[in-house]
Structure to design on (170 residues):
């Protein structure tokens, strides 16, 4: 009886560990998250960047193990590299698209409907052209997620001029 109980608890511990349900959930979500992020990147940046989410990483011995890596594919240069090796501006784009892809994924899979998004000055590191592209990405998120609005904070007059309405606190 005790051996059976120990076996049950050991199996449960393994299932709830990093290589169990968590790994399966990440494996399941990865392709959808990547597709959503790529849709957002296409909507704002065009076809230059796409991302892949890898849940198997290579060890020093050349073997595969559970892990997580974000690979960025640059159609302009023909190179693929880890997210951490992209430029600061590129990383802003990709992080924003990944963050919003996660929000879209959770909204689609939770059965809950959200009507409003919020963001705070995420556009600061971008030049003027990229800021306009960033606004296109925000509109794409609203469309893909079925959201009604996004409240965002920006110190950039060009971005606030692109908003449907402005709340001026000065």
């Amino acid at each position: 009886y005790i051996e059976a109980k120990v076996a049950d608890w050991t199996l449960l511990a393994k299932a709830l560990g990093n290589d169990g349900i968590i790994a399966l959930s990440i494996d399941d979500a990865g392709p959808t998250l990547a597709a959503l992020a790529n849709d957002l990147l296409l909507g704002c940046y065009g076809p230059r960047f796409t991302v892949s989410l890898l849940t198997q990483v290579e060890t020093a011995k050349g073997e595969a193990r559970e892990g997580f890596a974000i690979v960025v594919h640059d159609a302009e240069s023909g190179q693929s590299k880890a997210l951490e090796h992209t430029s600061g501006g590129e990383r802003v784009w990709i992080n924003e698209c990944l963050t919003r892809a996660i929000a879209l994924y959770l909204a689609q899979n939770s059965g809950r409907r959200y009507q409003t998004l919020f963001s705070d000055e995420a556009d600061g590191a971008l030049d003027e052209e990229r800021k306009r592209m960033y606004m296109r990405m925000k509109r794409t998120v609203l469309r893909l997620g079925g959201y009604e609005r996004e409240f965002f904070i920006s110190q950039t007059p060009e971005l606030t001029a692109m908003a449907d309405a402005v709340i001026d606190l000065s």
Observations:
- The longest strand covers residues 64-74.
